[in-house]
UniProtKB/TrEMBL annotation:
It is found in: Cytoplasm. Keywords: ATP-binding, Cytoplasm, Kinase, Nucleotide-binding, Transferase. It catalyses: CMP + ATP = CDP + ADP; dCMP + ATP = dCDP + ADP. InterPro entries: Cytidylate_kin, Cytidylate_kinase_dom, P-loop_NTPase. Its EC number is 2.7.4.25. The keyword Cytoplasm applies. GO terms for cellular component: cytosol. The keyword Ubl conjugation does not apply. Belongs to the cytidylate kinase family. Type 1 subfamily. The gene is cmk. This is Cytidylate kinase. ATP binds at residues 7-15.
């Protein structure tokens, strides 16, 4: 069974996907974390983030591992735990540009499909239902207002010990990223024709999960 959950930044995809996977005894695959890990790697190499022509030859040096622990999913970049580091505002500002790069997408697409092979998975991102897993059994597209998403991102940054900028600036960043993601050349943010859209602006996490579980059980 394959479940695809797509949507814009901070719409709640990852949180919902983790809980849904747990309830269905499926493997959770956070594709956004994979793109963020690549972005963090490029930022760590002096000047590399601006040298797009050199990204391709550096991809072979990147090893990403997703590991489930009692405290949640951990993300490792070349054996280093970067679970919190990939959520920084600096990474958030650069990840759309990295995710729009064809070579990066091709590299991670192979990894994502490999992880989804021969096991039940819940995978979240921006193009899972349209590009990564177009044959997924169930597809959901989560949306929320930019202000609600900015508040969520602000709370997430504060909780993880980062010093967040203002909610207003985060909202501007989110709106800019939405525009970029929708209009990028390769695999843009787009709702699959057969996806169920869920507006999470005024819903709790539990309500969203329950809505998905109900749909899955009725269409099993």
């Amino acid at each position: 069974m394959q479940i695809a959950i797509d949507g814009p930044a901070a719409s709640g995809k990852s949180t919902v996907a983790k809980i849904l996977a747990s309830k269905l005894k499926a493997t959770y695959i956070d594709t956004g974390a994979m793109f963020r890990a690549v972005t963090l790697y490029l930022l760590k190499q002096e000047g590399l983030i601006t040298r797009v022509e050199l990204w391709d030859q550096n991809l072979a040096d990147i090893e990403i591992q997703l590991e489930m622990t009692e405290s949640g999913q951990k993300v490792f970049l070349n054996q280093e735990d970067v679970t919190e580091a990939i959520r920084s505002q600096e990474v958030s500002r650069q990840v759309s540009k990295v995710a729009a790069n064809l070579k990066v997408r091709e590299y991670l697409l192979k990894e994502q499909r490999r992880l989804a092979k021969d096991q039940d998975v819940v995978m979240d991102g921006r193009d899972i239902g349209t590009t990564v897993l177009p044959q997924a059994n169930y597809k959901f597209f989560m949306i929320a207002s930019s202000r609600v998403r900015a508040q969520r991102r602000f709370d997430e940054l504060s909780k993880n010990g980062h010093s967040p900028i203002s909610i207003e600036q985060i909202e501007k960043d989110i709106q800019a990223r939405d525009e970029y993601d929708r209009n990028r050349k390769y695999a843009p943010l787009k709702k699959a024709e057969d996806a169920i859209e869920i507006d999470t602006s005024n819903m709790t996490i539990d309500e969203v999960v329950e809505k998905m579980l109900t749909f899955i059980s009725r269409n099993a």
